[in-house]
Amino acid sequence: MNLLENMSSIQPFVDKLQNESFSTMFKLLQERVDYPESFVTMLGETSSGKSSLINGLLGQEVIYTSAKPTTGTIVELYEYDIDEKITPYAIMNNAKLRKLTDAQFHEQCLSPSGDVLRLRLHVPMMPRQLQGMRLFDTPGYGSIHDKHEEVLTQFVPNSDVIIYVVNYRVGIGEADAEFLQYISNYLQDDLTFFLVINRVPEGITSDNVRIKEIVTYAKDLLHEDIQHFLVQSISGNEVKLPQAPGLWDAVRKEIQSPERQQLINDVLLNYQIQLLQDIQLEWQKKVVGVRLSDESIQQVQQEIEELKDKQKEAYELIHKTFNTIEVNLPRLFETANNHMHQSISNEIKKTNKWTSSEECIGYTSAHLMPRYEKLERRKITDYIDQEITILNDKLNELINQAFIDFTNNIEIISKDFEPILQGFSKKIATRTTDTILKSFLSKFGGRGGAGAGVANLGKKVMKKAGGLVGKKFTRDQYNQLAKFLKKIGATSTRNLTIAVTIALEGIFYVIEANRWQARLIKDVQKALNTWQQDTLKDVQLDMVELRQTNTEMVNECFDELISTFDQLDNTLEIKEMDAWKKEINDLQNLLNEMTRG
Ligand SMILES: Nc1nc2c(ncn2[C@@H]2O[C@H](COP(=O)(O)OP(=O)(O)OP(=O)(O)O)[C@@H](O)[C@H]2O)c(=O)[nH]1
Ligand SMILES: [Mg+2]
After folding, report:
1. What is the pLDDT of residues 190-208, one digit of tens each?
2. Most confidently modeled of 21-30, 153-162, 231-240, 399-408?
3. pLDDT confidence band for 149 (50 / 70 / 90)
4. Counting ligands in written order, which one lies closest to the CA of residue 69?
């Protein structure tokens, strides 16, 4: 059975249920099955030539390019043959699509207004047979801060292919290095990485020393062998676009490869199974409901209230932990700044160590500062790690106990609940939860990487909870946190690099024979203060997000169970009930077929 056939088999069940939420889910899934897409994201420092490469692919100057930081928001290329020519749109924050004129598109590209989520180009037909590709152009991270965050958390984990563009002359810079280390986290998660060395002068090939250097460094940072592509520079005054046939052919091969197709296939099949399991549970609930007395229904309602109390307790645990972290963070950053300043000053003052002031300044900015930043930042992330690990353990225990109590009591109320409890645990076993289905299918349509991380967390907790499935709790939850902490690392280093560059800018010109050390120490302090302020702010934002993630996870766990048991109805006719029983049977047969095939 294939995915399309599955959809036709599922359709009648959805129709009979007449439930809006299921119908919406079905529609979203149908869209995805009709157009299974792969996500391809362009990344790289500002002016490395990302937008130019896309223009080269399209064969026309669609996205504005310039020598200054240019692209100010994410631009998405979306194959859509209803529009006759390439047509620009804005996706608004409220998910509405607004058609733009070319001039408006240009303007929004450079500085998007606050109500725009991202821009989209409808492309009637993707060149080079790149059907099924959704291509994203992103702002170079050297310039724009807020979208940088979105790129890190949404687009990197959600991509099938990343095209990483570096300028031949510039090579891999500090910021690139941090970014690549962050990306390396996701390479095991079915992410394919292509390195593009752009604007390569004529005549230079892969055995060029500089090319080898760039590729080796990228490999080292990613801990993985990678494919790389050279794109020849278009020369000065020509009105020509960069051509990268080798790159685009490789992208096509990758997204159309049997392995990637299989991956998308598996994800969609899993969604189909989930949808059916949900419908089945809904019917089982109807059948069981008929046999329940009013009193039993009331008892179930009471159990649900208890569950809701436990949910509140879980919120309180989360908020207590995050409030504590919030209070402690400023002090921890203050201490980190003091330690760094102390240690770096001591090194600078070792006069006999330096042959010249230039050497000392260079060494301070390139080595001393990053080294101590790493050391001190680690203490902060270790602290966060510790607090959140304790929180996770407490949450697990609380949810676990709440679920055991609930399921035990429910079984006492009526033996008839047994099939629902079984259905529920089966559902949890295959589940990636509604949240992704709804938000990711509708918003992005990708594999659900970033969201799946969160949702899978909920799933793992639920699997464990109540021993419903009996599988062992994995380390996923921990890995998720580890990725988060690495992101803090990337942000902190980036802040330091920028702060140091700015603070030490003038020092080379004002070196007075005997006073440079005092001046350098002062400038270091200035850089550290900027770092402290910026990074504290960023980490605080990260904590807001992590608090939110934890709350969502708790919601998912509880809502899943609660929605399975609330609104029981005992007013159905026996005749109706028999009809539902038959439906359940048919549906089970279909499920068996799908899970076998
Ligand atoms: N000489 C030459 N210039 C190029 C080439 N490719 C791009 N450029 C120019 O380099 C500048 C930057 O290119 P963009 O495509 O805007 O770079 P980007 O990576 O999209 O930059 P951001 O949007 O700021 O992240 C533009 O002025 C391009 O015209 C090339 O192969 N040769
Ligand atoms: Mg650009």
Report:
1. 789 999 999 999 999 999 9
2. 399-408
3. low
4. 1
User: Nearest C-alpha to atom 3 of ligand 1 is from which residue?
Assistant: 234
* Residues, Cβ < 5 Å to ion ligand 2: 51, 70-71
Average pLDDT across the chain, whole number = 83
The single-letter code of the amino acid at 366 is A
pLDDT of residue 401: 86
pTM (2 d.p.):
0.68
Distance CA 459, CA 451 (A): 12
C-beta separation of 448 from 432 below 8 A: yes
> Which of 42, 46, 47, 237 maximizes ligand 1 atoms within 8 Å of its Cβ, making it the mutation to test the pocket?
47
Take residue 95 and report the two structure tokens written for it: 């998910």
Q: Which atom of ligand 1 is nearest to the CA of 235?
A: 1
Q: What is the number of H-type helices and E-type strands within the chain?
A: 20, 9
Q: What is the pLDDT of residues 89-121, one digit of tens each?
A: 998 877 788 999 999 999 999 988 988 888 999
Which of the following CATH numbers is that of domain 38-256: 3.40.640.10, 3.40.190.10, 2.60.40.1120, 3.40.50.300?
3.40.50.300
Scan for tokens 């359940």, then name that residue. 584
Read off φ and ψ for residue 367, nearest 5 degrees.
Answer: -120, -55
Q: Which atom of ligand 1 is nearest to the CA of 69?
A: 24
Residue 506, token pair as written in the block: 């003038």
> What is the tens place of the pLDDT at every residue in 299-308?
999 999 999 9
Q: Is the distance from CB of 202 to CB of 210 less than 8 angstroms? A: no
Beta bridge partner(s), residue 99: 89
The response to whether residue 67 sits with its C-beta less than 6 Å from ligand 1 reads yes
| Nearest bound ligand to the CA of residue 61 | 1
DSSP assignment of 101-164 equals -HHHHHHHHHS--TTEEEEEEEESS-GGG-TTEEEEE---TTT-SHHHHHIIIIIHHH-SEEEE
With cut-offs at 50, 70 and 90, classify the pLDDT of residue 455.
very low
Tokens found for residue 478:
């921990």
In DSSP terms, 195 is beta-bridged to 164, 228
Q: Where are the domains of the chain?
A: 38-256, 304-418+447-567
pLDDT reported for residue 182: 82
